[in-house]
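Sample 1 of the test manifest.
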Amino acid sequence: MRPAKSADRPLPHGPQTGHDRSMQHTKRSEVVRVRGLEKRYPSTGSRGERVILDGMDLDIEAGETYALLGPNGAGKSTTIEILEGIRRPDAGEVSVLGEAPLSAGRDWRSRVGIVAQSTGDLGPYTPRELITHFGKLYPEPRSVDEVLSLVGLTEHAGKRATKLSGGQQRRLDVALGIVGRPELLFLDEPTTGFDPEARRQFWDMLDGLTGEGTAILLTTHYLDEAAHLADRVGVLSGGQIVAEAPPADLGGAAARVPVVRWTDADGLRREERTATPAAFVAELSRSVSHGAGEPRDASGTVGEPRDLEVSRPSLEEIYLELIEAEAKR
Amino acid sequence: MNTTPILAVSDDGEGSLATHRTGNPRPAGYAPRNTRAADARPGIFSAGIASIGMEIKAYFRMPDTVFFTFLFPVLMLGIFGVAFESVGEIGGGPDGEDGITMAAYYLPGMVAAAILLTGVQNLAVDIAREKGEGWLRRLGGTPISPMSYFIGKAGMILITSIAQIALLFAFARFGLGVELPTEPDLWLRFAWLFLLGIATMTLLGIALSAVPRSARSATAVVLPIVLLLQFISGVYLQFSMLPEWLQNVASIFPLKWLAQGMRSVFLPESFAAAEQSGSWDLGLVALVLAGWLVVGLVISLLTFRWVRRS
């Protein structure tokens, strides 16, 4: 795996920018602030209501990429739609770019970019026509060619949108979301259905965007995507954020204790969680060569445990553990 | 199991930490944009004008709209003109003066139908489809004003209906040999009837677009309404042939009045005797059309949403 984030991304509140920003803002600049958000839908089939969001809190800072994770039906899209001003919350405080999304006006809309989960038909237009037209709706649009090259559609600029592949159409969705230079971009499952290569290209594209200081709220089912893109991830379960941390810290230190796995002399697969895997492996190799007086390794190799593997639990494993623990509560 | 080998990864783990990133500062141009001048935003009108071009492109790129709304009145006029060619001239005086061909008789009805089709049918189906297919939701996420969107629609309707009616006139004149009026007064009357008619039908089209629940059902909901109206309003069938109760029903709706107004432009004065009251009743035509215009406007303002909220 290559380094997850290119080093040239700016700091949301780094030393270079912190000074002049603090002149304008007495506290850290938040693009999203949610407190006690609640949303219920009428239950289908039976009487009563289904609680989707139950006192959710969420903060996203300027320039930050935040990945919202959670199983299907956990309320990720509902959250995004409330933040976009499309859905009405039942209770709670919602502030996006300093305004309440439901009542925010057109100036606010020009600072927000939206890539919805299901985007539907783009009409009988080409990417160039669409990007040109949408650009005219914003005060400071990116140039059409810049957007085309950012999303990698330069070669397909003159094709009808309906003739593009699924991945290309998705990139066109993103193109229309970013043409207005948003300060905050909503990406609701942007890479669902992509092949691995297309997903990689998509990630590179987003790296370019965040380089310009755009904050991103992302939902995804791909944990590697969250690990790659996000500054922080939050796990939504039971209507609340149950865990929130940078991808490398999710679940706390205990969840990240490395695991050493090897096959012992009897052919049994063994594993051991240890904070000091190197010391453990060194000890293991000594015990293989000296333990019990003679090497019992079937291959005859002295001092080398078979099928040795040292690993840290992946984000996906930690996520699944979290969701499982929540489900049991 | 999907695990990440620790030996291949830096101490940061899989994602580097937000708090330890170093690199370029934010580009110098960046500033929280709530301080920007509000007038940097494109105006409602200029965004609307830009939308007209997109709308017209879409209109002519969809073969079904071109056929069913743009060419339909021309085709119908051609069919009626040819089918009733043998009837010869109708409605003339005892010595045959003022008689007109069936094609000439059908022309005003087809002009009214063209305005109905372009305004109501095309627009209601178009907007319902755009809503169903998520296009409106996408627009709703941009700073476009609903007003700009409707300027785009109205401009498209105005331009396509002018082109459509010009084509209809050209076909009637050169294809079917129909004499068109020469008096400037009649063309002035045509102008206000056309403008009032297309404005009313456009607003009714927007209002009707709220009815279909999905893009698929849009045509099924709109087409029968439009077709029925044409049959009872004197477009396909001679209005005076209809039973009186049906005439009264049709008189509630705007198409009957628009067709009547158009007959006053394109038919000889002597045909006024065949109308319900024995005259063209242009004042009543204007009143009913204006009434429906207000109805359409109010319903449109009350029902239009970028998305169905829940």
